[in-house]
Amino acid sequence: MNGMNSPGRSGDVDFEVVVVGAGFAGMYLLHRLRNEGFSARVFEAGSGVGGTWYWNRYPGARCDVRSIDYSYSWDVELEQEWEWSEKFATQPELLRYANHVADRHDLRRDIQFDTKVDFARWDEVNRRWLISTSNGDTVSCGHYVMATGCLSVPKSSELDGIDDFAGNVYFSGRWPHHEVDFSGLRVAVVGTGSSAIQSIPIIASQASSLTIFQRTPNFSMPAFNGPNDAAEVAEVKENYPAYRREQRYSAGGVVRELPTKSAMEDSEPERRAHFEQGWKSGSLGGVIAAYNDIRVNQGASDLAAAFVHSKIRSIVNDQAVAEKLCPTNHPIGTKRPCLDTNYYQTFNEEHVTLVDLLETPIVGVTDSGIETSAESFEFDAIVMATGFDAMTGAVVAVDIRGVGGAELKQAWADGPRTYLGLCVSGFPNLFLITGPGSPSVLSNMMVSIEQHVDFVADCLVHLRDAGQTTIEADAGAEAEWVQHVVEVGDATLYPKANSWYMGANVPGKPRVFLPYVGGVGTYRLICEDVVDDGYRGFVLHA
Ligand code: FAD
Ligand code: NAP
What we know:
This protein is 31% helix and 17% strand. By secondary structure, it is α/β, with parallel strands linked by helices. It folds into 2 domains: 13-153 and 390-541, FAD/NAD(P)-binding domain (3-Layer(bba) Sandwich), CATH 3.50.50.60; 162-384, no CATH class. Strands 1, 2, 3, 4, 5, 6, 17 and 18 form an 8-stranded mixed beta sheet that branches. A 5-stranded parallel beta sheet has the order 7-16-8-9-12, with helices on one face. It is globular.
């Protein structure tokens, strides 16, 4: 195979594997493919590596899974050497980490930056994918991997008139590379998801006034961020192999004791004390995983929600504002929960105003600000923290044509259909990393990314060793998996929320529960069993 090594334009060339995306998934995949001797080219729309951490540079951006957990496990020297400065590393630190990995493993020479993949067509005669990019490159490859990220396509603004606004509009997921200083400015933030909740306290510390436009209040817990505890880090590092193994077979990709008790079993004071312990743990699961039934039993869920409501009321001085901040229209944890630093406290500041869009919806944006059904607000800058076309957005943004010219977008018109979140029937030799139907966004994603990358790399080695060139999901196996994903999701409270997990944040997107909620460890065992059983559910061809 005549793989090209020059980092410039590819021209009309062949690779064994083309990977789209140079986030943590694409970077690790490139490393694995190289080590296995495959010729590979990565195409990346951005100008650098890091994916999420390249694009999301808004103030306060950081991970909310501890960095000792949210880090690569495949470079065992790096995991010993790297010192995370805080429990939850900032975006600049995470980007530094990604760049360090790229340098350390000389990844950039096979990554073509500033190049968006637009089109991919399965060539049935030659049994290869033909890929076209925004730069006019066309390449062919035996296998085509979408490492395009679950949260990489920001939603476009749904606000009428946004282009007329005379000030600057910033999207959290496409933040400028230069420093943005809001000092002395009248700033609006639209949205109250994780990105907004991280950035609001920092923007408030700069702006002369900050107005937050909230459609749905979110459950947020304090991060209690700070420097890592040296003794704890030393202990984890000493036991990293066992620790990583435990992560891989855990429920959510993090090491934690699983609750065995129902919230209904404890008395009110016991429950309060237990929730308090969860609140103080500074972790996403603290309150939500305090009992084993909070995401499956409405009664248990209501108890946990009531605890968080009481916390919000105790932090926020103005009780009318506190009530607006208390989420009541979805069960706790069914929209992605948030970890914050002084989020609720920010609403005690004189210059911070909360606008409840459920009471007074946005009518539109004018040249000078935002108009709701009740009031006109004037701003110098608007921050859109309105989220992403999650899990499917980046996949269907590429015009992908499989067997018989079938369009992937069309095949997914009623919701994504995959086998194991990895492959799609009718689209041979196409792999998705952390695709819909896999645990992905319900986990510490580093664990899920590594599992999928290893699955794909091992599979390509298997095909090569067996003299086979093509692998495709069997339609029956895919249908069964899709059904299983729905059934497992329906056994929880997740479908009750208008969340991005349900596709409900994007107008017109089919309402389908996108990730697999069966757990990281369970899912891994299923994948291992599939492989041990000769890639059960896949059709392999010479
Ligand atoms: P990404 O990092 O999204 O990378 C995908 C890359 O593909 C992007 O660089 C994109 O430009 C490129 N791309 C997409 N389409 C194309 C195309 N057609 N052509 C060329 N290039 C393309 N997860 C956690 O587990 N813990 C956290 O604490 C956490 N925090 C997060 C914070 C934020 C602000 C966000 C947005 C997400 C967070 N996540 C977190 C999820 C995060 O996305 C994953 O953890 C992980 O970084 C995803 O890596 P990836 O390589 O799969 O995708
Ligand atoms: P998000 O969770 O989808 O939040 C978007 C917010 O914008 C929601 O409050 C949403 O309201 C609101 N919104 C969307 N469209 C709107 C409209 N047209 N008008 C008014 N309001 C609108 O997006 P995000 O905050 O970027 O986070 C996305 C995911 O990325 C997170 O869930 C998480 O997985 C990850 N993330 C993690 C961290 C971290 O702490 N490590 C930080 C940021 C992001 P509705 O709820 O009503 O739709």
